[in-house]
Amino acid sequence: MTLWKRRITFIVILNHRERVQNIRYGRLTYADEQTGMNPTIQKGESMNKAFSNKAIGFKATLLAMLVSVVSIIVYASIYSSTRYMSWAAVGIMAAGIVASFCLILARQYRFVPTVLLVGDFIGFLFYVYYIYFYVSSVVTGIQFSGFPVSFFVNIAFMLVSVVLCVICVFMRQTPKEGKTEAKEAANGGKNG
User: Fold this and answer.
1) pTM of the entire structure?
2) Burial of 31 (0-12, 13-18, 19+ CB in 10 A)
3) Which of 32, 36, 94, 141 sits 20 to 30 Å CA-CA off 23?
């Protein structure tokens, strides 16, 4: 390998490292006319600016995603070593969260709460299917121990997750066009 080829390779590696570092810190400064990239996060933009023009339904959907993650963690931590654990429920709920996140990245905001609801509801149904024998044995008196607090905590997280997803399905996920145009006019034609 000649000296000039090594030098070009070294410059390319340095450029790649700089781009990765800029991406890691949220500064997409390498996006210009030459690369043809048009990033959504500009240099120095904060999270508040990124979410300032989002509808309240979108923010509620993000909260529903967080509650779904917490529900999965609570369910797995309580029942993972018992026969009442449904790994299918965990997998389907996790798939719903991942699919919702992919839809957010693809900017298909209106479908996010529906996909999340489908994953959470099917996960809840699997949970009910696996816990049914335990509930029936306690209710009929076969098992006299009663329901532990962890049972109610898990039910609460699962139901809050599903109910929050149902509420988000009926909320607006994108801002109204009039609001965006009014913000643009107030900023003197500048978006943001």
Assistant:
1) 0.64
2) middle
3) 94
DSSP 87: H
Tokens for 142?
């076969």
Give per-residue pLDDT as tens, 25-37. 444 444 444 454 4
- pLDDT tens, position by position, 35-88: 544 445 454 455 566 666 778 888 899 999 999 999 999 999 988 888 888 899
Tokens at residue 88, please? 């299918």
Dihedral angle computed from the Cα positions of residues 68, 74, 79 and 85, in that order, rounded to the nearest 10 degrees: 10
In three-state form (DSSP H/G/I as H, E/B as E, the rest C), the secondary structure along 35-79 is CCCCCCCCCCCCHHHHCCCCCHHHHHHHHHHHHHHHHHHHHHHHH
Contacts of 118 (CB under 8 A, 6+ apart): 96
Amino acid letter for position 182:
A
Residue pair 191/104 in contact by the 8 Å Cβ criterion: no
Strands (E), 8-162: none
Give the Cα separation of 90 and 126 in Å (integer): 9
Q: What distance in Å separates the CA atoms of residue 137 and residue 142, rounded to the nearest whole number?
A: 5
Structure tokens at 98: 């991942």
CB-CB contact of 101 with 126 (8 Å): no
173, 61 in Cβ contact below 8 A?
A: yes
